[in-house]
Each structure stands twice: as structure tokens, then as C-alpha cells.
Write a structure and sequence with these properties.
Strand content: under 5%
Helix content: over 70%
Radius of gyration: 23 Å
Mean pLDDT: 85
Largest sheet: none
Low-confidence stretches: none
Number of domains: 1
């Protein structure tokens, strides 16, 4: 029985390692890569979770350890929670908004597929940020254009992978993937606006009833 459990654990780890390694294939051959990632089960949610957690730690390290000549973060205002929110919240909103939108346009992807594709698309950002930090300590300020190129490369690569991922996840054409992705960004903005409006209304309501309660307590004490 122990041998069977050990074998299952070994096979599970090999499967996990293979899905993590497969991210390198999606980086350079995104159309084939994202198709197989979803439809041939070459990816895994465990690997996607790993990339998200790795991105969080890499981003924190990026903000803290990059040479101050190229990035200057006031450490007294730095918050790891903000970094986590800044990574996880857009991903969650994108997956939810894209899934809601694409169900109206014959999209074939599930919300878990969209999340997984998004996580795999972040891999170039992770790798380039890891390169960016030590490089920022060995080049001069005048050579900072190299870092700018790296930064724009990582962002452009990410957005290109997102488009390719949406094509393959939902079986869309290139133009339809671009349109639905742009509409997804609009939907995300609307969702944030509605949440902020709801939060403002709730806050005002709580503040109103709190002030009424305070006034009632004050009158009871005077009476």
C-alpha cells in the first residue's frame, strides 16, 4: 500500500512538473501551446496557482530590490497586501468578466480555463522581472534604456499571450479575440465602478444609522 501511495505521489509530481515546464512552450509557441494547454490537458490549475504565487513574490522582490536609480518606492508606504491585491484582483476580474462576456458570444472556455491561461501568460513577466533586478545593479543610469526595453517587452509579451490564449480557449478568430478582450476590460471597469458605488452607498448607510444610534443614546442619557 505504501509503495502504491509513493508511486501515485511520484506520478503526481511528475505531472505537476511537466505542466510547469510546459509554460515555456506556451511562451514561444502560444497558438499551439494554449490550445494544448486547455484542450489536450497539458496545463494544470496547480501550475497556474504556482505562477500566481511566484508572481506575487517576484513583484514584491522587484519593488524592494531594484536599484533605486530605476525605481523608487517609499518603503514607509509599501504594502505587500497592495501587491497581492494588484495581481490577484485584476486576474479574478478578468476571468469573471471574460467568462460572462464570452458566454454571450459562443465562447467555449470555462472560468477555470481563462484563469489558467491568464496565469500561464504571466510567465514572461516573471522571468523578465527576475532578470531585471540584478541587471539594474550592474548598469549605469545612462544605460537605463535597456531596462525600459525589458519592461515593455515583458508587458507586450504578456498582452500578446493573452490574445493568443483567448483565441484558443474560446476558439475565436484573432479579430474576435481582440474585440472580446477589449470588451472584457470595459466590463472590468464597469464591475469596479458598480462595486465602488455599492461600497459608497453601504458606507453612507452605515454612517447614517450610526449617527442616529449615537443621537438616540445621547438623548436617552440626557433624559
Amino acid at each position: 500500500m505504501t509503495l502504491i501511495i509513493d508511486r501515485l505521489r511520484s506520478d503526481g509530481f511528475k505531472r505537476y512538473a511537466a505542466t510547469v515546464k510546459y509554460s515555456l512552450y506556451t511562451m514561444f509557441r502560444p497558438l499551439d501551446g494554449f490550445w494544448d494547454l486547455i484542450h489536450e490537458k497539458r496545463g494544470s490549475l496547480a501550475a497556474a496557482h504556482t505562477f500566481v504565487v511566484t508572481m506575487i513574490f517576484v513583484q514584491i522582490g522587484f519593488l524592494i530590490l531594484t536599484n533605486f536609480q530605476f525605481i523608487n518606492i517609499p518603503m514607509e508606504f509599501f504594502s505587500s497586501a497592495y501587491v497581492v491585491t494588484n495581481i490577484v484582483l485584476p486576474m479574478f476580474l478578468f476571468a469573471l468578466a471574460n467568462w460572462c462576456l464570452t458566454t454571450l458570444f459562443d465562447g467555449k472556455g470555462r472560468i477555470s480555463d481563462i484563469y489558467m491561461a491568464y496565469a500561464y501568460a504571466m510567465v514572461p513577466q516573471i522571468i523578465i522581472r527576475i532578470i531585471y533586478v540584478p541587471l539594474s545593479h550592474v548598469i549605469s543610469y545612462d544605460e537605463g534604456m535597456i531596462l525600459n526595453i525589458l519592461w515593455y517587452l515583458s508587458e507586450g509579451w504578456f498582452y500578446l499571450l493573452i490574445i493568443c490564449a483567448m483565441m484558443q480557449v474560446h476558439d475565436y478568430s484573432f479579430s474576435k479575440a481582440i474585440v472580446t478582450t477589449l470588451l472584457t476590460l470595459v466590463a472590468m471597469a464597469i464591475m469596479v465602478f458598480i462595486f465602488l458605488m455599492f461600497f459608497a452607498v453601504v458606507s453612507d448607510g452605515v454612517a447614517y444609522f450610526y449617527s442616529v444610534g449615537q443621537e438616540a443614546v445621547f438623548r436617552v442619557r440626557r433624559g
